[in-house]
């Protein structure tokens, strides 16, 4: 960049800084800024438009346009050139504005006399805040240097907006992040709740965007980048062998050593920004590109750069993970995404979880369900909108988040919570009663668990036992492989807590998205279809054997139920069962206490197993349909990929027919069958499963009440007829017909 423009830009920033130092009210500051910019850039007009709400921009200050139009002129997102800059988050630079696509004439501003137009987005970390515009009568395109200078100023404006510099008397602007906001997302765990925001990664606040001494800022940047490099190298050394993690860290290293990145930040400093503002400027540009790109590879790389920039900002500002802020009461966790182990660290203290990305089928979602914490994923903008301590109300039925709700919303919401409490009371009143349908069928309801903390729910939920105990959660929460004695003690506690009720212990189901931090994962192109669960257990049986021994010792004279995950063919089951026999024999020889009896079952999670020989069905002690995986393989739709996952309904006629076929095969071979995927806990789905012949369902504890309630009011023959009719009509899914039937019956689910 030529020195001249650096100087110009720095001079402009210096003038801005001096102007900001005066103790003016917000509007006066905005007015001064427009005046300064117009003067420095030798333009007749400079205007600042800021968002009033998500869809509306308001002219908040101007030099050159009609003063009366301030706070009067409003534009919708996408409207006019200004609205286009805001929507596309891209600069518009034109010599002839009235002839440019999108131009909209606004008589109140008197702007038709201006020919040149340069508009740049005002944005902070991908959050659009407004648009900064300069215009002049002379018909000319602005030079790249001028564009750059205006971008730098826009960056400073964004920082100052964030700091609340323009709030106050006459500003007609309220502080950012102070207004009520409603956000929408996808429900991953139902529930209505309220609490106060706790950011998983605190927002870094840049208190001074100006470089007082550019040399000093450059030095600070170099030191921080060096610290970052050393940190990445250390992480790489520790992660040796871990495929995906190494790949990400290699990308980090590439960015940390990138000359282009460094040069751009140095240029930003030369033009008057502080080191942290320079990092943020580049980060903002990368985020804007991330939002616009359809190329998933590029988006991932930009997301890596984003993460790295956050680390650099934390080093520069000294605002680490721990900012000293105290977690508020009733915390509602906000994060871009989170892994199952991190979520478990927070435990049950959370009142809700809001993720900007994430997916309904992920294991973090399963952990949230196990902990019965309302979870909403894909909540756009939540990490940029929410501040620590903000009051939030979560409608985990509709997928709506009310951030900083006003009184009207809060009152309506309280009514909703009261209704939910009443429903809970209704469920409590049927807790001791069986899930017996009006036509006399009794459905056996069990609960899914995976943590010691789940067990207190067993007596209060009305479950008859634990239909799925996911043992891997215990492995995921540790930093090292648990020892056999520890596991034996833990399993014994689980059995003690279940007070004689049956607990189905599923052996370790790792791989895919469940990666143990201390086990060397394999680099695989398709982890969900890869070396996971029982495949690992059979190829490297050390851990499986240790787990089986621990379970037998824990049983100590009590019956034991073991289930193998992800069995894809008969032979895998026979080999796994042989491991149980071997472990039993070894324990007997060593003189350890033994279980009084052992049941050995398999999860049916791959379509292949449904077509295995009768002999398999006869040999297995029981089967449990793992609907989460079965559905993903049936439809070839990744359970973690929201885009494809939600295309396929569980009540799709083909899928229901497939489940029915499994039910028939089990009936013919007298094999006990249950369903333990998440769908078993959804009342309408559970009702349809019961109607096609399933008699045992296992679900998270909070679902038992609603499922029991619908079953007790239903006549399965009628529901079955609705399903059959839908099938004959050629409906794609039976859902519309079932919902209509339920409405006719006046049933609230
Ligand atoms: C399933 O796949 O349905 C299941 C219960 O197992 P998980 O969700 O743990 O993979
Ligand atoms: Mg599974």
Care to describe what's here?
The structure is a single chain. It contains 28 helices and 23 strands. The protein folds into four domains: 160 residues, GAF domain (Beta-Lactamase, 2-Layer Sandwich), CATH 3.30.450.40; 119 residues, Phosphohistidine domain (Glucose Oxidase, domain 1), CATH 3.50.30.10; 104 residues, Enzyme I, Chain A, domain 2; 315 residues, Phosphoenolpyruvate-binding domains (TIM Barrel). The N and C termini lie far apart (65 Å). About 1% of the residues have low confidence. A hairpin with a 4-residue loop joins strand 13 and strand 14. It has 749 residues and is of the alpha/beta class. 45% of the residues are buried. Strands 15, 16, 17, 18, 19, 20, 21, 22 and 23 form a nine-stranded mixed sheet that branches. An eight-stranded mixed sheet has the order 7-14-13-9-10-11-12-8. The site of magnesium ion has 5 residues, from helix 22. Phosphoenolpyruvate (PEP) binds next to strand 17 and helix 22.
Mean pLDDT: 87
CATH fold topology of the largest domain: TIM Barrel
The Cα radius of gyration reads 30 Å
- Based on the coordinates given, report the CATH architecture of the largest domain: Alpha-Beta Barrel
Helix proportion: 40-55%
Proportion in β-strands? 15-25%
Low-confidence stretches: 169-173
Shape: elongated
Output the CATH class name of the largest domain.
Alpha Beta
Bound molecules: phosphoenolpyruvate, magnesium ion
Distance between the termini: 65 Å
How many strand elements?
23
**CATH homologous superfamily title of the largest domain:** Phosphoenolpyruvate-binding domains
Number of domains: 4
């Amino acid at each position: 960049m030529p020195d001249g423009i650096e100087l110009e830009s720095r001079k402009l920033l210096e003038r801005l800084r001096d102007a900001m130092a005066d103790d003016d009210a917000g509007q006066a500051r905005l007015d001064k800024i427009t005046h300064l910019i117009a003067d420095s850039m030798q333009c007749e007009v400079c205007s600042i438009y800021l968002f009033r709400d998500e869809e509306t921009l308001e002219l908040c200050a101007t030099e050159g346009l009609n003063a009366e139009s301030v706070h009067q002129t409003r534009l919708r997102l996408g409207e006019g050139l200004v609205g286009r800059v805001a929507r596309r988050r891209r600069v518009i630079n034109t010599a002839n504005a009235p002839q440019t696509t999108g131009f909209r004439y606004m008589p109140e501003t008197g702007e038709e006399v201006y020919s040149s137009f340069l508009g740049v987005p005002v944005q902070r970390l991908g959050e659009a805040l407004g648009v900064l515009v300069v215009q002049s009568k002379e018909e000319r395109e602005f030079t790249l240097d001028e564009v750059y200078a205006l971008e730098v100023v826009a960056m400073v404006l964004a920082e100052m907006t964030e700091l609340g510099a323009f709030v106050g008397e006459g500003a007609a602007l309220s502080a950012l992040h102070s207004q009520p906001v409603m956000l929408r997302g996808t429900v991953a765990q139902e529930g209505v709740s309220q609490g106060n925001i706790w950011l998983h990664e605190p927002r870094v606040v840049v208190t001074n965007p100006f470089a007082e001494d550019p040399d000093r800022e450059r030095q600070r940047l170099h030191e921080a980048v060096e610290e970052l490099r050393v940190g990445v190298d250390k992480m790489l050394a520790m992660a040796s062998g871990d495929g995906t993690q190494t790949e990400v860290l290699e990308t980090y290293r590439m960015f940390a050593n990138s000359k282009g990145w460094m040069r751009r930040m140095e240029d930003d400093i030369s033009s008057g920004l502080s080191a942290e503002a320079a990092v943020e400027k580049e980060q903002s540009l990368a985020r804007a590109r991330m939002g616009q790109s359809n190329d998933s590879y590029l988006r991932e790389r930009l997301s890596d750069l984003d993460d790295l920039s956050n680390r650099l900002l934390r080093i520069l500002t000294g605002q680490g993970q721990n900012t000293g802020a105290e977690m508020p009461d009733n915390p509602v966790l906000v994060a871009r995404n989170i892994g199952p182990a991190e979520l478990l660290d927070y435990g049950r203290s959370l009142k809700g979880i809001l993720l900007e990305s994430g997916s309904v089928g992920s294991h973090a979602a399963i952990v949230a369900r196990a902990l019965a914490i309302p979870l909403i994923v894909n909540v756009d903008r939540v990490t940029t909108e929410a501040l620590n301590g903000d009051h939030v109300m979560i409608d985990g039925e509709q997928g709506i988040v009310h951030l900083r709700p006003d009184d009207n919303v809060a009152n309506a919401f309280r009514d909703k919570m009261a209704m939910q409490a009443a429903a809970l009371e209704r469920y409590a009143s049927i807790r001791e009663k069986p899930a017996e349908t009006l036509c006399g069928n009794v459905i056996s309801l069990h609960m899914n668990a995976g943590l010691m903390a789940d067990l207190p729910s067993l007596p209060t939920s009305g479950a008859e036992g634990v239909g799925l105990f996911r043992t891997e959660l215990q492995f995921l929460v540790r930093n090292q492989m648990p020892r056999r004695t520890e596991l034996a003690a833990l399993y014994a506690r689980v059995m003690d807590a279940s007070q004689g009720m049956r607990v189905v212990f599923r052996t370790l189901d790792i791989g895919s998205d469940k990666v143990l931090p201390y086990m060397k994962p394999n680099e695989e192109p398709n982890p969900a279809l890869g070396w996971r669960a029982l495949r690992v257990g059979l190829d490297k049986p050390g851990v499986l054997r240790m787990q089986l021994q621990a379970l037998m010792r824990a049983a100590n004279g009590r019956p034991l139920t073991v289930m193998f995950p992800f069995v894809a063919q008969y032979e895998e089951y026979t080999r796994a069962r042989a491991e149980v026999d071997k472990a039993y024999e070894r324990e007997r020889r060593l003189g350890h206490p033994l279980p009084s009896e052992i049941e050995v079952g398999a999860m049916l999670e791959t379509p292949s197993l449904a077509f295995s020989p009768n002999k398999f069905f006869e040999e297995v002690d029981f089967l449990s349909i793992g609907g989460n995986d079965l559905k993903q393989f049936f439809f070839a739709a990744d359970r973690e990929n929201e885009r494809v996952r939600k295309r396929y309904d569980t009540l799709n006629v083909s899928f229901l027919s497939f489940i029915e076929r499994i039910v028939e095969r089990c009936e013919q071979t007298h094999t006990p069958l249950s369903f333990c995927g998440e769908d078993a806990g959804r009342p309408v789905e559970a009702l349809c499963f019961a109607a096609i012949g399933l008699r045992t369902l296992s679900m998270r504890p909070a679902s038992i009440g609603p499922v029991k309630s619908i079953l007790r009011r239903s006549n399965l023959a009628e529901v079955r007829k609705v399903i059959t009719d839908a099938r004959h009509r050629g409906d794609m899914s039976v859902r519309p017909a079932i919902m209509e039937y339920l409405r006719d019956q006046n049933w609230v689910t």
